[in-house]
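Example (one chain per record):
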Amino acid sequence: MEDALHNTKTEKNVVLLLPREGFIITLLCMTVVLVTMNTAMFNLALSDLSHEYNLPSSIVSLTVTGYSIMFAISSITYSRLSDLVPLNRLFGISLVLTGGASVGAMLSNHFWVLLTARIVQAAGAGAALSLSIVLLARYIPQVRRGKSMTFIMSSVSLGFGLGPVIGGFVVQYLGWKYLFAITSSLLCIAPLLMYFIPKESMSKRSFDVMGALTLSAGTAGLLLFFTNYHPVALLIGISGIIVFTLHIRRAKHPFVLPSLLANRTYLMLALTGVLAYLCNFATLFCCRKCY
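Predicted structure:
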């Protein structure tokens, strides 16, 4: 609420707050494209990983499952942290995590090191889209906000389109490790975003750790069940979601506002997004199996 009031008061001076608006939006678009490509192109390397490490596909697929779980958790967490931590710092942390983990994965010689690097990658990559939307909503006036949002969402589509094409070329002609060289370029974008995004003075308020943990457990459990069909994972997922729903109704500063769960428009948009991602990933997996 305080952020919203601050933005309303400074709406006329937003150009002063974001002096290089076009340049920052360009950097955000590049970041979103690279992160989305990283999500889409690694599926094409699973067969190569299975042969190189002599592991079954059920184990190798953890590089995708683990990434997806951590990506979902981090995306929600960064959105909440944006009310507590300055955006330029969050962008710096997230991009350094993603780029640094990419370098580590490229140099790794063991599968479990690679898997760990992928999960650390996702811990940073989940911030790209969510923080970009927060930044645009916080600093771009309404007359230009729709156009800016269009650039960001178009970057998501571009990343999903380029991912299989570039990923297939790199895997076939250079080797799967060079996929991480592409994502490591985020290390060059991180200092630019940290420098050009306005410095913020955030109000001190508590972070709903219980809400974050229960939502993370619920999300992870459900994703693991849909991937490996373990009944224990389903039990953890359902229990986590139930405890989370009950908790946010009592928390003073809930991790997710309960009013969102009662907003039909928000729920329909969320469902549309989930279905879109399901179609994207189903297509990628079908293509990989055919290949």
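Caption: The two ends are 51 Å apart (CA to CA).
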